[in-house]
Amino acid sequence: MSLSGQNLSIIIVTLKSENVLHDCIKSIDQNIPIIVVENSNNYELKQKLESQYKNLKCILTEKNLGMGSANNRGIKLANTNYVYILNPDTTLEKNTLENLFLESKKIPNFSIISPIHSNEKNSNWKNILEKNLDKSKPFQVDSIDGYSMLLNKKFLKDLYFDENFFLYLENDDLCLRARKSGGSIFIIPSAKVNHKGAKAVDLKYEKEIELSRNWHWMWSKFYFNKKHYGFLKAFFEGCPSFITSIFKYLFFLLINNEIKKKIYFNRASGFFNALIGKSSWYRPKLDD
């Protein structure tokens, strides 16, 4: 069965995302079911969304599960063959889905596809070996950024997001595992997605989110490298940043720069926790 509006669900994971979420939802065809997975117990938001949008169901996780785990909840709830993972700070252009449906017929056995970022300078894909790609037609890539990933459940089977990742690299991990199992990943250049970038959570929580990003980037990078390439690669790739973070922490401690001190402490802490095998436990404090 080919990709169409009849067998596609949209999944959007949210947390304090009301400032951008409505633009995202309104850019999606109202005939396509949307599952919003809210990483909290915000019953008021659930009621508002489900009363405003008839094609939307909001699931509350009761606590902040992170991106991978929350997306998995949406994937398992979707009754369609295809699921499109979108961040709340994205919007689709007018013909994005129509072009995805059309072009996907040329690559019926894909594992993951995505529109291309509307701004060519902000590529949402990686391709390590091949640099001169023909962007006039769908082209195969190594990985796709997590804010826009359309998954073929039939070919991915149970290859969903690794829930050990809380934030960062869960998309690269999924793409790598899909390719190792014989799957293919494509960018569809005739379809466009807009991404505001780092706007998925209300900006009033910017400092807390920045601390969380720094902790989880270091943790996730170590875990990803250890999982796929071994402990030594993870250690030697992360160690320079770890040592630099310690020195920068001490410097900003001496000059009493509170926010920079916390950022570099979190970087060092993320690496150290991954190094000793602890889970990605750090959570931003987003209480009002």
Question: Would you mind describing this structure in some detail?
Answer:
By secondary structure, the protein is of the alpha/beta class. It folds into two domains: 5-195, Alpha-Beta Complex (Spore Coat Polysaccharide Biosynthesis Protein SpsA, Chain A); 203-275. It has nine helices and eleven strands. The protein has helices at residues 18-26, 43-52, 67-77, 96-104, 153-156, 170-180, 206-229, 231-254, 258-275, and strands at residues 8-14, 34-38, 56-60, 82-86, 90-92, 112-117, 125-126, 139-140, 143-144, 148-152, 185-195. Strands 1, 2, 3, 4, 5, 6, 8, 10 and 11 form a nine-stranded mixed beta sheet that branches. Strands 7-9 form a two-stranded antiparallel ribbon. Helix 1 links the parallel strand 1 (8-14) and strand 2. Helix 7 (206-229) packs antiparallel against helix 8 (231-254) and helix 8 (231-254) packs antiparallel against helix 9. It is globular and about 60 Å long. The mean pLDDT is 95.
Write the layout of secondary structure elements.
Blueprint: E1 8-14, H1 18-26, E2 34-38, H2 43-52, E3 56-60, H3 67-77, E4 82-86, E5 90-92, H4 96-104, E6 112-117, E7 125-126, E8 139-140, E9 143-144, E10 148-152, H5 153-156, H6 170-180, E11 185-195, H7 206-229, H8 231-254, H9 258-275
Parallel strand pairs: 1-2, 1-4, 2-3, 6-11
Antiparallel strand pairs: 4-10, 5-11, 6-10, 7-9, 8-11
